[in-house]
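Please predict the structure of the following assembly.
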Amino acid sequence: MKMSFVLIEAWNGVRRNISMVVSVILVTLVSLTFVGSAALLQLQISNMKSYWYDKAQVAVYLCTQYSTLGACDQQEASTDQIAAVEAQLDSDTLKPYIDKWYFESHDDAYKNFTKQFKGSPVVDLVTPDLLPQTFWVNLTDPTQADLVFEALGGMSGVESVIDQRSYLDGIFSMLNAASLTAVGLAVLMLVAAALLIATTIRLSAFSRRRELAIMRLVGASNWFIQTPFIVEGVVAATIGSVLACGAIAGIVVFFVDGYLASALPTTSFITLADVWIVFPGLLLAGAVLAASSAYVAISRYLRV
Amino acid sequence: MIRFDGVSKVYKSGNRPALHDATLEVKPGEFVFLVGASGSGKSSFLRLILREERSSTGLIHVLGQDLGRLSNRKVPAYRRNLGVVFQDFRLLPTKTVFDNVAFALRVLGQSEAYIYDAVPEVLGLVGLGNKENRLPHELSGGEQQRVAIARAVVNKPAILLADEPTGNLDPATSAGIMDVLRNINAAGTTVLMATHDTAIVNDMKRRVVELSDGRIVRDEAGGQYQTRANRAVVDDSFPTRADSQPIAIEPLDFDPIPAFDPMTPTSEAVDLSYLDRLEEDPL
């Protein structure tokens, strides 16, 4: 009986305040969609990181006869120097950190280059001796590239040591900035949503102030007086959260997996299966936001 | 039942205390009139008992509870022991007579079976047994006040507080309301009634407590509305003429706003129901 009375009161509140309730739903929808998008970006970033960082290698470029960088003096790296680098890679100090390495000769490098830039006029300008011989090193832990720099960077015959991850960091920091922007907008929208819910509840309380005054006079418990308003706010916000989940799912299915995945086939993108985990969080966030702001609003209204 | 010990109440904005060093005891089953001019502290007195306010100094005990120590959380449970009736009835305009009375029980979580038992009984007690399904605006002022009384006593409170319950009613209707209150009192409920109504106080011959500027200036059993009041005013507050003739001050309870002058009651309650229709949807 008690619960049904509470629910009827909450429903009356929704009915009388329908335009405000709709605006709460919309604001919650937009703000939680931003929150969800930020989460999606983070998921995508970590997805790409694990994909690319595993593939990223440390390149140890050796001197060519044209090179003046590093320890090179326009001298092709000698067989002894190559052997020394090789010995260093196999040494006890480096070996535990190296998953595997392989050597790429001038001809191998040229073959890969022509394959990669097939059809481009640059292929005609390049000869095998222009491309450095390279040791490609896969580390067991990609973050420990510094060890290779220290061990091989200063050796004679080595032109430079480059961690491919440094190319990726630019992309990731850009994506991170986008995700932070989404979070910032989301926070602003959430503040707006909280204030709007509080205002809606206060308005709802105002339109029922006679009932409230009588409830207080006859000694209805605070729980009993407050619950319909909190239910009202939570219902509105939950509808908004469900719609936001739908929007997120739509973004993933139609934009990411539909458009982006076909436009950039080499990149691995998140799928709906990856983003399920975001939905309970969004629903919970919407409900908690609404319940707390409704509680604060109604408590202020009912202070004895 | 109700005990005030040196109670004073000062409102934040006011410099003058609304109640000054009031000491009073009301015993179970008593019927007490609270009289005095507007602003003399009658309403503050009732609000303190309701625990809508806390006293600034002094102790208030009601039904064995020290209201100064009663936490906000326990106020609802405390108020279930009190019934309250106001001058303006405060009925819910969209609910029927039955639902208005039942509302007080529903918000306390009573079962429907109990409600369908208790509400007709109390409506019979106030003489509205055949009007359960009317809406408040279909009733006369006196009938509306009976509904309000039914709502106040349906929960069988130990104390009934009435703040000028006949203020909007004509003398004949007021007499009917007083009969209802007398019956409720006879059944054992302590009644505390603030009023301006001279005739009622003089007819009932019950205990009268007079307030003036927040002080209890008179407390007598079987009292009249104005006995010492004129004297008190002339003696204490007003300058007398050189020939020491008392100034005739009639009525004592002059209220500067004629529309609310309780000495000239209107036969019907002012119809404010249009306000409810306006407020129904604030947007």
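The two ends of chain A are 26 Å apart (CA to CA). Chain A touches chain B through 25 residues (CB under 8 Å).
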